[in-house]
Amino acid sequence: MLTTMRDEQNGIFPSVCSLDCPDQCGLLIHKEAGKIVKIEGDPNHPVTQGAICNKVRNMTARIYDDKRLQYPMKRVGPKGEGSQFERITWEEAIETITSRWKKLIEDEGAESILPYSFYGNMGRIGTEGMDRRFFNRMGASRLLYSICESAGTEGYKYTMGGSFGTDPEDTIHAKLIIMWGINAVSTNMHQVMLAEKARKNGAQIIVIDAHKNQTGRWADWFIPILPGTDAALALGIMHILFAENLVDEAFLQQFTAGHEELREHVRQYDPSVVSKITGVPAHDIYRLARLYGQTSPSFIRIGNGIQHHDNGGMCVRTIACLPALTGQWLHKGGGAIKGNGSYLEHNIPALQRPDLREKEARQINMNLLGSALLELDPPIRSLYVYNSNPALVAPHANKVREGLQREDLFTVVHDLFLTETAKFADIVLPATSSFENTDFYRSYWHQYVHLQLPVMTPYGESKANVDVFRLLAAEMGYEDEALGDTDEALIRQALDHPGNPALNNISYETLLEKLFIKADVKPLFPGELKTPSGKIELYSHEMESKGFPPLPTYTPLVDEGDLPFLFVPAPNHNFLNSTFAHNEKHIRMEKTPKLHMNEADASALGLVSGDVARVWNDRGECELVVAAGSDVLPGVVVSQGLWADLPGNKALVNALTPDRVADMGGGATFFSGRVRVEKREVN
Ligand SMILES: Nc1nc2c(c(=O)[nH]1)N[C@H]1C(S)=C(S)[C@@H](COP(=O)(O)OP(=O)(O)OC[C@H]3O[C@@H](n4cnc5c(=O)[nH]c(N)nc54)[C@H](O)[C@@H]3O)O[C@H]1N2
Ligand SMILES: Nc1nc2c(c(=O)[nH]1)N[C@H]1C(S)=C(S)[C@@H](COP(=O)(O)OP(=O)(O)OC[C@H]3O[C@@H](n4cnc5c(=O)[nH]c(N)nc54)[C@H](O)[C@@H]3O)O[C@H]1N2
Ligand code: SF4
Ligand SMILES: [Mo]
């Protein structure tokens, strides 16, 4: 029998995956004698249907890992590598933190304190609830949450008015599926399962990627492309669609703004020109455009890969125009998904309480953490890190670590493990896993909202984010009611959102009863979009007023000089960003950090598969094992995974990545850096 009671020692408990992954799977947690013994997929979940990834099937090893933090600690040795910590009580930890902060606020103002977090756990009250209330009340510096998808999200919004796309459950009806810059076999496995269903009904699957990885190998047609050039390919497709009359004129008339301007504008993107930019042969561009123009419903899954570039926002904005040209939004399963988060938007002001902030504070782009710590004036004196591991995941990692190394920086890290970042902390706090917390979750891909109830008691003395902020607030002397709200109250306030009727059927009560509920999402078309014109904006006056080209445009990547290779350090299959990168089983499954390169490039450098390559630029260096072959184009090198600082590993790929920001959203440009490669000298 299924139950939702946390106290029961034995049973099967429905749950939800908390990781930063679009699939947001329904889980079943098996408990014996109070301990989680097995995690499997919930077969009753309509989208994820009982299938889960390897990473989470092995999650119990992480939850009960003996390296998990059990109590608060203070640092007793030097910062960083070789740091040592000593157990303290929660009282001492909270007292130490708040007394430092009170003094800092008095001496230098609250802006000298910077919270730094991301989505190590996607639970909303823990990642953007009590924490935001607390730092708003304090008046701390604000963080721009830009490390993941912000460039593409802003770009997509200019075209479509927000993160509104196709319902993934409908994509089984598509006859053509394009996975564009997404390694879906690893990063969105249920989209792959849905595509498989479509394939059984005759759909063709195309993958456009810089790397022929597991997703490229699964495709019916893999199209290799030079990184950062996808906007040009999309414009070349548009050129052919207009030239060959493959557009849906009625749809363009009724639902788009600026199609005549676009028709004129794309004349310049002749396939022969586009081919030179993208590395895609002109005949393939014709074949792709004709397939796209003649197949319906067609669906494009727009990944994160194309927007981790200097031109990423515009690239996503451009690809997002394609379904409009052929009227795909009116066909069940047709259209595109970049992200679907806007459908499920909860009451953000009610949850985060920006009104608690008395005066504006500076905002710091998380992609510039290194320079923020080293160069800002007035300086950051204290950093509070939770739900994130910036020493490993942030761009220009050596600069980040140099900043974290500052002796006068008072750093607190709240995490489940002594991460690379925690090694630089003054105080380390142990965090509960999502299975120990109450929270609500909303997918950014499918349309379900989930409630998570605790299925185990907190590990050691660990505490949930929400609980730590309640303690900090009390000790700071903040008496605002909002800082004492219960988990249930926070969830109720967030879900009570008259501005989003799609959540009308979702409340704390209905979630308690059902645990996951599909939002009441109305079809996008026919209807008004949330763009200024209410239509799909092929021409955007809003962009024009902000200084962007108003029409979709290809802009080359920033010139990093004559370094021979463009470096794409992408995620891997068995880690989730840096989560699991310290877990033995996951490391074994991933084997070794590799550098995929073209055979011709490798042999020109005297490299063969299995050699260790030194990869470097003026930001840093790392060592990766060469995998030579034909899965990347010449001039491109690709690695996979954010590998941990472990003995014998010199695989900190972010030592090489630029901290330039993308064209939109202050986004990260992880994949736009250039490097040199050589055979490592054997000592
Ligand atoms: N297994 C696993 N799953 C994950 C994650 C993980 O680390 N591991 N991370 C999670 C998170 S936080 C996110 S944001 C998502 C990200 O997942 P995805 O949306 O799949 O994005 P990435 O994996 O960053 O990149 C996808 C692909 O883009 C390709 N690429 C890079 N540059 C270009 C380009 O210019 N053009 C084209 N066409 N392709 C390019 C890369 O080779 C890669 O195959 O996955 C989530 N799920
Ligand atoms: N080179 C390169 N770098 C990248 C990327 C890439 O593709 N290439 N991808 C980027 C992207 S898309 C993203 S989203 C970022 C992700 O970067 P991060 O958000 O930093 O993700 P993780 O590395 O998984 O770190 C999450 C941390 O949160 C902790 N955690 C989990 N649950 C909780 C909790 O409930 N409370 C607290 N306090 N801590 C918790 C975990 O133990 C873990 O240490 O990385 C970025 N970095
Ligand atoms: S990481 Fe993604 S695929 Fe794996 S269980 Fe969690 S939501 Fe599902
Ligand atoms: Mo991400």
TrEMBL record:
Coiled coil: none annotated. Keywords: Iron, Iron-sulfur, Metal-binding, Molybdenum, Oxidoreductase. Residues 10-67 form the 4Fe-4S Mo/W bis-MGD-type domain. It comes from Paenibacillus germinis. InterPro entries: Asp_de-COase-like_dom_sf (IPR009010), MoPterin_dinucl-bd_dom (IPR006657), Mopterin_OxRdtase (IPR006656), Mopterin_OxRdtase_4Fe-4S_dom (IPR006963), Mopterin_OxRdtase_prok_CS (IPR006655), Prok_Mopterin_Oxidored (IPR050612), YoaE_C (IPR037920). It comes from the Bacteria. Belongs to the prokaryotic molybdopterin-containing oxidoreductase family. Its cofactor is Mo-bis(molybdopterin guanine dinucleotide). This is Molybdopterin-dependent oxidoreductase. Pfam families: Molybdop_Fe4S4, Molybdopterin, Molydop_binding.
